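Researcher: We're reviewing a set of sequences before deciding which ones to prioritize for further study. For each one, I'd like a predicted 3D structure that I can look through quickly. This is Putative ribonuclease ZC3H12D. If possible, include the structure in token form so it fits the rest of the review sheet.
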Amino acid sequence: VHPSKLDFFCKLGYGKQDICKVLENLGQEALEDDVLKELIRMGSKPQALESQAQPSPLKLIARGSCSTSPGSKWLGEDESDSSDHLRPIVIDGSNVAMSHGNKEVFSCWGIQLAVDWFRERGHKYIKVFVPLWRKEPPRQDSPIADQHILEELERQSILVYTPSRKVKGKRVVCYDDRYIVKVAYEKDGVIVSNDHYRDLQNENPEWKWFIEQRLLMYSFVSNRFMPPDDPLGRHGPTLNNFLSKKPVLPEPKWQPCPYGKKCTYGNKCKFYHPERPHQAQLSVADELRAKTKVSLNLGKEEEQRNH
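Model: Here's the predicted structure for Putative ribonuclease ZC3H12D, in token form for your review sheet.
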């Protein structure tokens, strides 16, 4: 097995046995995307995700490291992130910047506003993906505002540049959307973007479900980053639950029955009856039986006293 390929997929958190099996089936020269698709199809999960579901005392040590398990600290993740109750955040930098610049200017301040919003909420794992060519001096056809913000975010290990290069004067750009979805999927996090990534949804069924369930859209209102309170619609989770690994279910709020004591539904009534102790919602027939039983018992006791 080619050591660089094995090392690459080990860093993503996949097991060596699964990687070797896929490379044997597809051949040593198989493309990384094809290998990844096959690993997903086999049902192989990165060990970083498996460890959340089944904590194991054994830890696989990645080559060249001392104490970190594969996939646990890639892209500069902190050790505390694994125990954090908030989901990792992956921001589509181009989408956010262009949205803040009204689709005319690549506004880096928009990225900063989004990062600050998640920081204030307590998220520790935040990554922003931007194409490498945005480092270059701005041109008339692609203006950039506040470019120094990108340097600062890169210094803080928040911003990640997706690769690009020039071949015979033409720029060859890697598809940054694939990086965004892949990292968010591997980290079991949230994608921040107004893009629906339809091409990637069609490419991979696992990604389709993930994008549908974990895409957080947003708006900018007077330089204020604002995600919706109901990211998956009216009947979906709240924003707090959407961004949390362990959602908190709201306590049921019982609505009082409009018929009160005149209600004839008994235990089938879906409303709250304060006159029924401990919410013991008996049917009308059961209530009558209970009352009859009590009156019969009282009658027997009186007879015994008289005797």
